[in-house]
Amino acid sequence: MGLRGPKARPLKERWEESIDKKSNGCWEWNKSRTKKGYGKFVIGHAKWENAHHIAYEIFKGAVPKGMVVRHTCDNPPCCNPAHLIIGTIKDNSNDMVTRGRSRAGIKHHNAKLNDKQVKEIKEKYATGKYTQVKLGSDYGVTNKQISKIVRGQRWQRS
Asked: DSSP character for 17?
């Protein structure tokens, strides 16, 4: 992974020229990025890796098999090794939920309810006067979705 071609410059040197060090401590990737904002770094012939992954390998060592590189700063283009930690995919998903970046609730592209409606559903169901089928019919969702809402498997924050 160190060189690219017979006269190529060292990997670290090529990587460092693509970094802008910001006042907030982030080292932002200033070249090509993915749609989600992560830096793309070319390795070999037309093969690319995430720039923050390469940063971890340059400054901290190999990423263990089955692990991912996570951002503590929650800034996708950041490549500052001080902001990067190792974790599982589940850890990374938990970061997304904890930081409010998951597509849950009203943020989900298929959301049919809003926070106010979910609160109403929970309150009505708690009275014992409404069935899940009735609530589903009233709010235009399935009784299965109502069941998940009242059990706390959906819309937990409402």
From this structure: T
**Rounded distance between C-alpha atoms, residue 91 and residue 112, angstroms:** 29
Tally of domains in the chain: 2
> What is the SS3 assignment for 21?
strand
- Our measurement of the distance from residue 117's CA atom to the centroid of its chain's CA atoms, rounded to an integer in Å, reads 27
Q: Which of 81, 77, 97 is nearest to 34 (CA)?
A: 77
Q: How far apart (Å, rounded) are the C-alpha atoms in residues 45 and 67?
A: 25
Are 73 and 16 within one domain? yes
Residue 74 placed within a domain: yes
Domain that holds residue 57: 11-98
Q: At what angle do helices 143-150 and 132-139 cross, to 10 degrees?
A: 110
Residue 14 to residue 42: CA distance in whole angstroms: 10
For residue 16, the domain's CATH number is 3.90.75.20
> Could you tell me if 92 and 111 lie in one domain?
no
Cβ neighbours around 11 below 10 Å, total = 17
pLDDT digits (tens, 9 = 90+) for 73-116: 989 999 999 999 999 999 988 887 777 665 555 555 556 777 78
pLDDT tens-digit readout, 8-30: 788 899 899 999 999 999 999 99
